[in-house]
Amino acid sequence: MTSRSTSTLRKPNSSKPAAKAKSLKNSLKSQAKNQVKSPAKTAPAKTGKLPEWNLTDLYGGIDAPEVARDLAKMDADCVAFETDYKGKLAGGTAREDGGKWLAEAVKRYEAIDDLAGRLGSFAGLVHAGDSVDPAISKFYGDVSERLTAASTHLLFFPLELNRLDDAVLEKAIQAEELAHYRPWIEDLRKDKPYQLDDRSEQLFHEKSQTGFSAWNRLFDQTISALRFKVAGKELAIEPTLNLLQDRDGQKRKAAAEALAKTFKANERTFALVTNTLAKDKEISDRWRGFQDVADSRHLSNRVEREVVDALVASVRAAYPKLSHRYYRLKAGWFKRKKLPHWDRNAPLPFAPSGVIAWPEAKQMVLTAYRGFSPKMAEIAERFFTDRWIDAPVRPGKAPGAFSHPTTPSAHPYVLMNYQGKPRDVMTLAHELGHGVHQVLAARNGALMAPTPLTLAETASVFGEMLTFKRLLSQTKSSKQRQALLAGKVEDMINTVVRQIAFYSFERAVHTERKNGELTAERIGQIWLSVQGESLGPAIEIRPGYENFWMYIPHFIHSPFYVYAYAFGDCLVNSLYAVYEHAAEGFAERYLDMLAAGGTKHYSELLAPFGLDAKDPKFWDGGLSVISGMIDELEAMD
Fold first, then answer.
1. Nearest to 216, CA basis, from 410, 407, 423, 26
2. pLDDT grade, residue 401 (50/70/90)?
3. Contact predicate 394/60, CB 8 Å
4. Rounded distance, CA 74 to CA 614, Å?
5. Which of 137, 332, 417, 625 has the smallest number of Cβ neighbours within 10 A?
6. Please, what is the Cα angle at 621 between 300 and 474, to 5 degrees?
7. Per-residue 3-state assignment (H helix, E strand, C coil) for 283-343
8. pLDDT at 223 > cutoff 50
9. Residue ranges per domain, the chain?
10. CB 210 within 8 A of CB 280
């Protein structure tokens, strides 16, 4: 499975509710963490030469003097900001020119945030390229500590801002200079009920470095260092997971058994990390007054709990007509009643074989993008021409794929592990969708460029859909069409069904953790329960699968993020239906929606397309698109 980005936003700091206001060091914590040094490794001949990113747009290297210069500037700017504004917001905002005075403060805060984003992103990206290199790990840790220490001087600002009288603040926002920041300020004030006193906030903030941040880092380093013995070879996790999509059934089985064996040997470590982070979150939630284990995520996503609950209920109710039905079909294609769990993503018997070379993948995606919008393709092409993509598989490199926005004064970077599979092409389309979104939203500045997770996956999934539809329209034979449809259905099941199962798993683990530690065995039992429910009777879960929860990074880096994938996929299904029946102007409205970044609530952004996620029928409409594709596959059988 492709582990897609949790870093399409600056990842919210789980110890603090105000993600946008307190994002100084958060760019360090996303899964986007990679590299300036490029270990020499020849790309497989069949894929062609794969690009490696050029991080010099951020800094020339971990020893570059500009890094030390900017860290020193960060320290000085944060101290100066605290000196100039701490304890003064109420009086300054109440002045006759209070709006202009506060606007200057917000602009200074935003400039610091942008600089921190550059430093944190660079350290994170270097680390993602090689998380086992001791020098890089030290650099990553040192920069993280420096940003944490510097940003303690800024904690007062969002706290004091939220204590301002509503009438005083409303008057100040009328000033032209401050009006631009109204969405950020209004968003920030939604966090007010969950804020603590200044000293408590500072303690939470400083302890994060030795708390959840340290456990996140331990997970990253542990998972990158694991080796899996397959057919006498010691493999890292990414190529081992990739073997689960190999055409050779024996290789798929051997990979699954190797994964199970190594996970079993490390289960105590992963259980400890999971238990510690769940307890850490429970403490934070309890102090802040969150009622449900996922409420802090819903708040940072700016989505109502009932909307997510409706999504989850709709998807779970649809399991029988989606995943259960599809896997029954797939088992039949393999002439079996049931498939072992390692064959869940096996290539279909009638799917074309061979490796898709990188130039071909690039052309597929850019052609699909250009057919929708020349502007969209033009932005996406820069990722290739300007070396914003890192594609080869390397030892120590982060698994999966992501698009990291860095900061508005720079540009996004895409990481993937390209191996020439059809799914890799869709991953490229997915991450470039994120990249286009991030480029367009950057105009809003560091405070308002980040998009709430409710829409964070929209551009990525839409990019996949454009690519899929383009390829489908060019298909000549019925077998090719069947293979494309089946591949898309599998991807959608992985995006919708699997992610909602992940969300159900997280809910169960975090809820049960309140009553005490969970053993690795107990966590495995919960995992098997939700997987059995979602996969259905046509997938036979064999021994060893109970520990496959261990490698999912979303559970560690961003608890409860996963429903954003299902949200995005169902939303895009509905959005694409509007596109197919739209008159002129859809592409322009779509790009405007992406360019809005975090300046508007998701309901405002969907309104021009006639979509309302609060409508109970909304999710059923998105799921019916998947069901309809399975109908067509059944008719072909």
1. 26
2. very high
3. no
4. 42
5. 332
6. 105
7. HHHHHHCCCCCCHHHHHHHCCCHHHHHHHHHHHHHHHHHCHHHHHHHHHHHCCCCCEEHHH
8. yes
9. 11-225+269-350+483-637, 227-265
10. no
Q: Tell me the CA distances in angstroms from 450 to 10, 379, 455, 546, 564, one per residue in order.
A: 7, 18, 10, 36, 15
pLDDT digits (tens, 9 = 90+) for 175-216: 999 999 999 999 899 888 888 888 888 888 888 888 888 999
Could you tell me if 185 and 161 are in contact, meaning their C-beta atoms sit under 8 angstroms apart?
A: yes
> Which of 572, 580, 583, 582 lies closest to 606 in space, CA to CA?
572
Could you give the 3-state DSSP secondary structure of residue 634? helix
**Both structure tokens of 285:** 């939630």
Beta bridge partners, 234, equal 229
Does residue 486 come out as left (phi exceeding 0), alpha (psi in the -120 to 50 range) or beta?
A: alpha
> Sign of the CA dihedral 589, 439, 612, 616?
positive
- Per cent of the chain over pLDDT 90 is 72
Does residue 150 contact residue 239 with C-beta atoms inside 8 Å? no
Tokens of 483: 């293979």
CA 171, 176, 177, 179 torsion-angle sign: positive
Burial class (CB in 10 A: 0-12, 13-18, 19+), 516: exposed
Residue 528 corresponds to which tokens in the numbers above? 């098997």
Is 556 in a helix, a strand, or coil?
A: helix
State the Cα–Cα distance between residues 102 and 92, nearest whole angstrom: 7
Tell me the Cα Rg of the chain. 24
pLDDT digits (tens, 9 = 90+) for 316-375: 999 999 999 999 999 999 999 999 999 999 998 887 777 899 999 999 999 999 999 999
Mention every residue, 6+ apart, whose C-beta is less than 8 A from residue 163. Answer: 89, 90
CB under 8 A, 24+ apart: contacts of 585-594: 587/372, 587/373, 587/376, 590/373, 590/462, 591/373, 591/375, 591/376, 591/440, 593/455, 593/458, 594/436, 594/437, 594/440, 594/441, 594/458, 594/459
Q: Which residue has tokens 């708040």?
A: 299
Element at 402 (helix H, strand E): strand 402-404
- 389 three-class SS: strand
Angstrom distance (rounded) from CA 90 to CA 106 = 14
C-alpha triplet 239, 462, 294: angle, nearest 5°: 75
Are the beta carbons of 110 and 184 closer than 8 angstroms?
no
Structure-token pair, residue 457: 């996956």
What is the distance between the alpha carbons of residues 472 and 408, in angstroms, rounded to a whole number? Answer: 36
**CA angle at 243 for the pair 241 and 247, rounded to the nearest 5°:** 145
Paired tokens of 592: 């405007």
Identify the residue whose tokens are 């009086």: 91
Phi and psi dihedrals of 183, rounded to 5?
-60, -40
CATH of domain 11-225+269-350+483-637: 1.10.1370.20
